[in-house]
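Lab notebook page, bench 4
Experiment: in silico fold of construct C2
Operator: M.H.
Input chain length: 314 residues
Purpose: comparison with the prior construct
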Amino acid sequence: MTTPEQRRKKGRAISGWVNLDKPLEMGSTQAVGKIRRLFDARKAGHAGTLDPLASGILPIALGEATKTVSFMQEAAKSYEVVVAFGSETTTDDAEGEVMATSDMRPDAASVEAALGHFTGLIEQVPPQFSAIRKDGRRAYDLARAGEKVDLPPRRVQIDKITLLETMNGDQMRLKVECGKGVYIRSLARDLGRFLGGFAHVGALRRTRVGRFDEKTAFGLEKLTALGHSAHDLAALDACLLPLETALDDIPALALSDDAASCIRQGQAMSPPDPQALIGKNGGAVLLTYQGKALAIARMSDEDGLLKPRRVFNL
């Protein structure tokens, strides 16, 4: 009989990030499972859900990198979206049923003039088909059961929207640069309504999450081919990005032997230069030892000590 301990240790203790270019018609959870099995990793997780009808950048953390997922969830993101004007759907994308139509087909000048209304810190109502919980249940489960889901608006940050292309009389392609929690489907829906008609997402691709972009991304077919052609996993491991990739925008501090020993034991330490470590992400600091990530610590407001929050077993 397999013991719980053996089940926990199934797979390799490998750590790092896979910058996956997720294909269409695959859910984020399914993509994580495929990558975990391909790399024979013990643990895996993703940084930010990408809908099955969307393609593009889905950073997947393996092993100890899963302890840094929260930092990637806060990262800035970029999308390219095809907005289809003329109809609104139940899901706010091409998958749903059409529930309203209009003859409105805006020209490029009208769209560009409207984009400023949707930039900055705005309020946005999420789609009914979303993973947000309502009365303890996922909104998409309620919507699939035929219930009308009234979700409250959320404040989100959209930094910039650029009109890239007028594709035909019905569709336009936009680039959206935004923060956490933005629903591109809601943006398309609201843009159509603002212009006096209806619209939905015709196609969507995520092109960047923090430092993860298309230049360093690997498609699933490429990774699968590497896994099948190699006699060992070295070719796949060469595709991994280091754990620290997710921590690029927080200050780092190299530790001495004694300080590293304290951190490993969960003890707080006094930083040599507290002012140099003040940054964003709630005072988070990356602690390193002999060139490797050792822990994520946070500066205490009460006593100014660095206290370990996530210790890496590398």
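Observations: The chain has a mean pLDDT of 88. The radius of gyration is 22 Å.
Next step: discuss at group meeting.
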